[in-house]
Amino acid sequence: MNFVRLVVNPLKHVCQVLVLGCFENALGGRFLDELDQALGGVLGSFYEHGEFTGELNKTKLINTFGTVPAERILLVGLGMNEEINRDRFRQAAGAAATALRSVGVRKLASVLHLAQGGGAEILTATAEGFALASYSFSEYKSGKVPGTDLDEVTLLFSEEGEPDYRVDDLLVETSAICGAVRFARDLVSQPGNVLVPSYLAEKGREIAVIHGLNCKVMEREEMAQNNMNALLAVAKGSHEPPKFIVLEHWGAGADEAVTVLVGKGVTFDSGGISLKPRDGMEKMKDDMAGAAAIMGTMVAVAAMRLPRNIVGLIPAAENLPGGGAYKPGDIIRSMSGQTIEIVNTDAEGRLLLCDALHFAQRYNPAVLIDIATLTGACVVALGSFASGLMGNDEGVIASLKRAGDVSGERVWELPLWDDYGELMESDVADMKNAGGPAAASISAGWFLKRFVGKTPWAHLDIAGTAWEEKGRPYLPKGATGVGVRLLVEYLRNA
């Protein structure tokens, strides 16, 4: 999708649709009084009769019949003025894009970003809302698929004065980030018979060439030489070979600190020998959403030329119940040397991550963050509205919370007290790989903590946020690409 910046009187601009933001129960606002007068008082009538009240994300499409140059006007609600924040602009833009999709609009003009005085933060949020809402995955639809995504959004600025921020730079950056989110959504949306570990590895090589990243793909033999036995155990039941993908962005000097990001890449999770129930198993193609988030983040930071040293690690494997599959009761020696008793082969993601977290120590990272669709228990605890957050460093946790608030990809911290380690005690090994249903998200986080040493570390559980079941203003039904905007916001401000 393309953004265009134009300085013009919005009410004199010729366009198919002009989008305006309206506050709840109060018509007065920038451009609205003048527009209402031009339309013969119809806007005031809507408010008076309750046909449109400015309620958050509600929309009203009006045909102007030539009274103003815009063919149609779309009013979108921003809610109460005193409750406004940047995510409400993101939502309102998403609601506008969704409403116009159903009537086939491919180009629009907008002054939504000028409500409440505008500003750089509001402009960014509004552009994100339009870009993120205008997404669909139709690669496997047969025949001609009608275009429903926005092609172009023209952001209008009044002739009264130039903004005190660099609009073009912000739009370029926002486009890069949203493009990375769309890339991550595409990956998660691919079916499991297409997106296998080799496919992920090839995508890693592709983005490295396009965006100037370093890419290395470690094969099974090299993983065995590095004693990545936990990762390899998960892959034993599948004919698809595992891959360990390394992406590097060296945006700062060689002596500068390195941040390492790790994403779980289970390209399909049947549960292995501990087989999942059949209902809903088709959704387990999204168990590589953490890997997609890391790939998307690396695309964004490279496109932005972020002056940071960032490494993305993606352990990738399928978890299937083949004849060679690992079994409950097995004992595995991880890359770190710690032994793990397998009590549930459906607790496989942490086995990929534990070897990757230990491998990350080779970079002597200043910060280590992993992201994974790790536990169904996190869905029970937080639903689809926030990702779980745990870690061993208050500074990293606080920075991720701030990034979540800014990006709208909210996180909620769960405790990681030593007491939870009791759930993972094993009689025959250093630890078990699962601690039962009680505090299952936390015990999984505690397990990962055993492999990070003293490195400042945080864990993000996106099991509930990686897939949207119903569709929300800027999150169409399906893969959300969660984690990309959160991590980019963290990386550029931490």
Explain this structure.
This protein is an alpha/beta fold and 494 residues long. The chain folds into two domains: 2-158, 3-Layer(aba) Sandwich (Leucine Aminopeptidase, subunit E, domain 1), CATH 3.40.220.10; 177-493, Zn peptidases (Aminopeptidase). 33% of the residues lie in helices and 21% in strands. It has helices spanning 32-38, 42-49, 86-101, 120-133, 167-189, 197-211, 220-225, 229-235, 289-303, 349-359, 376-382, 394-407, 440-449, 484-493; strands at 2-7, 15-22, 59-63, 70-77, 107-110, 152-157, 214-218, 243-250, 258-263, 265-269, 309-319, 331-333, 339-341, 367-372, 387-391, 411-413, 431-432, 457-461, 467-468, 478-479. Strands 7, 8, 9, 10, 11, 14, 15, 16 and 18 form a nine-stranded mixed beta sheet that branches. The protein has a six-stranded mixed beta sheet with strand order 1-6-5-2-4-3, covered by helices on one side. Strands 12-13-17 form a three-stranded mixed beta sheet, covered by helices on one side. Helix 3 (86-101) runs parallel beside helix 4 and helix 5 packs antiparallel against helix 9. The protein is elongated, with a radius of gyration of 24 Å. The mean pLDDT is 95.
